[in-house]
Amino acid sequence: MLTTDRYRHVIAWFEANVPVAESELRYGSPYELLVAVMLSAQCTDKRVNMVTPALLAAFPTPQAMAQADERSLYALIKSISYPNSKAKHLKGMAELLVRDFGGLVPDDIDALQRLPGVGRKTANVVASVAYGKPAIAVDTHVFRVAKRVGLAPPAAKTPLEVERQLTKHIALALRPIAHHWLILHGRYVCLSRRPKCGECGLSAWCRFWAQEAARQEKNKVNPI
Questions:
Q1: Cα angle 102-45-151, degrees, rounded to a multiple of 5
Q2: How far apart are CA 7 and CA 24, in angstroms?
Q3: Catalytic residue among 86, 91, 139, 147
Q4: Which terminus, N or C, of the chain has the lesser number of Cβ atoms within 10 Å?
Q5: How far is CA 112 from the centre of its chain?
Q6: Cα distance between the two ends of the chain
Q7: What is the dihedral of CA 51, 55, 56, 61, to 10 degrees?
């Protein structure tokens, strides 16, 4: 199947079956979203949502967090993965926001990546979710789904390569929701170890499923 045809079918399926797709992180402002996304690295959204209320109640603004002691931050996020480094990054992020951006979270991806602890994925999430920018963040779920379904070529080795393929084929207006389509599909259907192919609405256009079906058919003809 041609890549353009696969994209057309996959996007049409999502539009028809998943008209609403949003972040599962709870936040009330770009600052709160940035904090939550930074904490979510190698951690579940569920766990992050358990931690952020107390953290943001204690440090409701970048100015407050910039004045925080790292030990105080650590105490509030210690149930999160890598709490030591994340506490350091949160404080550094807040200090730079106050110093260079007037305490406001920028909407520019390059500017966001100047903040400690903010890589391209986090910057893309904040730009897309908080500001509606046409960016697609490629986390482990998006990377896996894109490669399996065939939205990215088998040779794509990095998140940036996959991001470039997605942005090449997905219209600007659809990129913010497409980011969530792929994340949620990877989180609940296209699982890492045991993908639920029998429940997947994308199987008719999925490269992984076509290969798996061919393998199963071959085993029927030539049993081991």
A1: 95
A2: 25
A3: 139
A4: C
A5: 16
A6: 30
A7: -140
Co-location of 114 and 69 in the same domain = yes
| Same domain as 77, residue 12 | no
Calpha distance 113→62 (Å, rounded) = 16
- Pair 12, 43 in one domain: no
Domain count for the chain: 2
Give 49-83 pLDDT, tens digit per residue: 999 999 999 999 999 999 999 999 999 999 999 99
121, 157, 168, 196: the active-site residue: 121
- CATH number for the domain including 151? 1.10.1670.10
Q: For residue 121, indicate whether it is catalytic.
A: yes
Is residue 46 part of the annotated active site? The answer reads no
In this prediction the pTM is 0.90
Has residue 224 been placed in a domain?
no
In a domain, 53, yes or no: yes
Place of tokens 């992984």: 208
